[in-house]
Amino acid sequence: MKLSKASIGGLVKPWNGKTQKDAPYQELITFLGVRTLYYLQHQEERTDLLIMLDEETGNLLQIPGGYGSENGTKKIARLVDQKMRELPEAPAIQGPLALNLEWLGERLKLNDTEKGILALAALIQKDSILNSFYSYLDDLRLPRLENLLAFLLSKPRTLIHEAIGPKGMLQQSRLITLGEDYALQMREPMANLLLKRYPNPNELFGQFYGKSQPATLQLKDFGHLKSELPLLRKLVKRAVQTERQGINILLYGAPGTGKTELARALAADLGFCLYDVKIMDEEDNPLSGPDRFGAYALMQKTIARQGNTLIIFDEVEDVFPSPSFWSFLEGKRQTQHKAWTNRLLEENPVPSIWIANAIDGIDPAYRRRFTWEMEMGTPPKPVRQRILAHHLDKLPVSEEWIAQTAKDGNLLPGHVERAVKVLQLVQTKNPKENEKILEQMLRNGRNGGKAKEGLPEGYDLSYVNADQDLHSLAEGIQKHGEARLLFYGAPGTGKTAFVQYLSEHLEKPLRSYTASDLLGPFVGQTEDNIARLFEEASDESIVFLDEADSFLQIRAQADRHWEITQVNELLQRMERFQGILICATNRKEGMDPAVMRRFDLQVEFLPMNYQQRLDIIHSALERMGLQPKTKEEETFLQKVVLTKEGITPGEVGKLLRHNRFHPCQTFEEAMTRIENITGQIHQFSKNFGFSGIR
User: Fold this and answer.
1) CA 508/CA 526 separation, integer angstroms
2) CA dist 178 to 212, 215, 337, 355, Å?
3) d(CA 517, CA 533)
4) 65-84 pLDDT per residue, tens
5) What are phi and psi of 592, to 5 degrees?
């Protein structure tokens, strides 16, 4: 076996590859224990050795019992002096620790002093005797700690100071930390790794990180991000080429929106190697936030020289410590960790992609250090259809089913990927059977999630009665890419559904908010929510504010100061937003005049005209299988429709939903229900809306 170069500061001779199987570190522990006791009793601030001795320690040092008398401390001190003189030549570091230190030292360019400190820290963490000794040294101040380490490792204190300092490799890579009282600390998972045998260096470093899974999508599959991706790609490419430090990308959004897949697709498109920070240890136990942060810091140091490399750090919500009311009680430790984290984000040599489902709990001080932040929401229908087609390319599923399924506004890339994995295992040759399997898996994948409204099945602009040409409006928005619009009109006239239509037609993600999403119970909270809404919104998205009259009321009629400030905040944000902003209201008359002047166009949505009413009821009867079959039935239908001047698409949708669980049996029964539609649309909740037509 090749001789190990690992040693404790040059004091310990190289290991010859032979190990004491039962206790490979026994000689070394005895050596360190005796020297520690010797050092402590010969300092000005002497330590009472008597309190540090127990049966286990006495056996190790071969100290007989009976030293509990008044003169016990003096006798122990004389015995420690004797043991110090009798110590043999410094023993070698043996066993797995020797090889692991050698591999780690080669990868991180560690010197003898740093390797010696690592060996000592690992043995203190895992050996009960050394751990017992050093538990009495928690309040050891930095100068005394440096002197102790210098004595144990036979190295100048200046080298020790550099090795354990905040800019040294050991702390930068999080291999060790200094506690609040400067106690030398190594996290238990790290000590476990250093003391375990691995067949080669790759197996050792594989406990901290590994190569990411291959991408299953391409950048072109993220068409709804087409304005951001070229710049993001160029940023990452140039950062790697120029070796620019501190490049960190934060992707966030609901689970399943494709954040991890986007990171993999970006790396694949650039031809870069992508590494994952481990989430589980080798025994499949979840790693804590500090342990994962430590693994990430070590990654930065070990793969920095490889070139053409990116790091993906998933599920980072639990990694960043969030600010709290009690943070001031944590004192210096909190300050030290924050400074270390800030430096890690500013000086990382390998560009990193951080992924989170939510970022509310991440301290703004950390977020300011990210180079790029991007929220990922539900992709629009054309993108959903492309993702479905991509994953199902070689599986027996019909194109019609793909097109129909893509209409589901709840469908996320993560749902599709999971469902396809199941189908690959249980597929049949019958497309219909495969489609049933996929539908079941997609339903299961969405259980428990918050539903998002999609474009209603059978949606047709010809049923919407507005005072503007909606086709021309959609084309104009697509051409110019920026608009501030107000949609107003009675509930059920199709305002929300048209916004959903625009999202799919323009292939832009929709960010929808109601009053309950923005109005807060505390003074200033609503303004903060409005500000965060626009800060997180991309200029390439559609921002839709429903119930806009709830927070844009006339300021002259306000009774409280905060009612004015929330309108002011929204006015300022509207002015600066360069994307598509749409507000909807049932009460236009209650909105502030200054707000009304900010809109490029105000569109009124009206109840349907006669022809629209006739067409939509014909369509509804056809779905019910009860369309008129005689001239007399058609004439009767036209007379009924003529009297229903106030009905809306939403009310027809309500009729169809009723028919699902209580179907009409005859044309006459269906017409009776149609006659019972009041046409007084204000009696219905706006929640029924156009989305009721399924």
Assistant:
1) 26
2) 32, 40, 11, 29
3) 10
4) 555 555 566 777 788 888 88
5) -65, 135
